[in-house]
Amino acid sequence: MITRNFPKTRARRLRKNSVIRDLISETSLNHKKLIQPLFVSDTVKGVEEISSMPNQFRFDQNSVLKEIEELKGLGINTIALFPHLKSIKKDNEGSEALNPENFLCDTLKKIKQHFPDLVVIVDVALDPYTTSGHDGILKDGKVDNELTLDALSKMSITLTHSGADILAPSDMMDGRIGYIRDELEKNDFKDTVILSYAVKYASSYYGPFRDAVGSKQKEGISKKTYQMDFRNSKEARKEVELDIQEGADILMVKPALPNLDVIKVVSEEYDLPVFAYQVSGEYSMLMNGIDKNLFDSNVIPETLVSIFRAGSSSVLTYFAKWIAENNG
């Protein structure tokens, strides 16, 4: 170990101006590594702001195409798509998720028709489709793992047929990556990427998202019965290793900021790319702080850099467009 002493070593020499700081920075923001989540809705005409997420919107099919065109103009070439649906389309089984003509599939086809080179990540979970707001099918007072696996594997084929480039199972059912991978192979979708929400903690940070997709829980069953306990970090290794064995291509850690330690461990110990999701609660927390002048907007790149510094290859963030406009 080299011993450094003052005054021969002065750390401030390399901090004296912005050009030098940029030259030696270990981590920098690249908007091409940011993924913009978008909400599409069959209940709105045009655009509707999400009350719990300032400057985030639900789009109808026409307006989402305009938004994507703007994003592509800014250099953002990957989106994550989430549906918000009429209540009449929901049931206990989330059966609308398997309908090849459903709103999300129709929207996906239109998006790929207009933007064939856009990479579209699609969520694989039943919560936007179930009356319970759960990610799976309820049976005998609990979320039934095997029934849900069958539905998710069928849903994955439906979404891939419609043009999904990357499937992102976010449900946290045991064995779902293997079920989905096997179904993709059977249907000759050998090149479909699976982005596994391998480490998804049961978190209070998801509140605004559930508002955005209309999936607030109506049953007393807790999502803690299938999502990870935020008090555990060693458990993340088990979840990651299972998903790798079952055929995941990319791993996700969610939420991002409270779990930088986990992002670091997963990125250093496993050879798959690691993505992080700066979730709705993280976004709204920062936006409300900026709005109340508790801090300025520089907190946005600061938090994103910390996620990349921890080891994330890419970040899903509602700030993607903002970064492209302001820090691109």
UniProtKB/TrEMBL annotation:
Q: What biological processes does GO assign it?
A: protoporphyrinogen IX biosynthetic process
User: Where on the tree of life does the source sit, at the highest rank?
Assistant: Bacteria
Q: Where is the active site?
A: K200 (schiff-base intermediate with substrate), K254 (schiff-base intermediate with substrate)
Q: Which pathway does the UniProt entry assign to this protein?
A: Porphyrin-containing compound metabolism; protoporphyrin-IX biosynthesis; coproporphyrinogen-III from 5-aminolevulinate: step 1/4
GO CC term, one of those recorded: cytosol
Q: Give residues annotated as binding Mg(2+).
A: E239
Tell me what this protein is called: Delta-aminolevulinic acid dehydratase
> Taxonomic classification, please?
Bacteria, Pseudomonadati, Pseudomonadota, Gammaproteobacteria, environmental samples
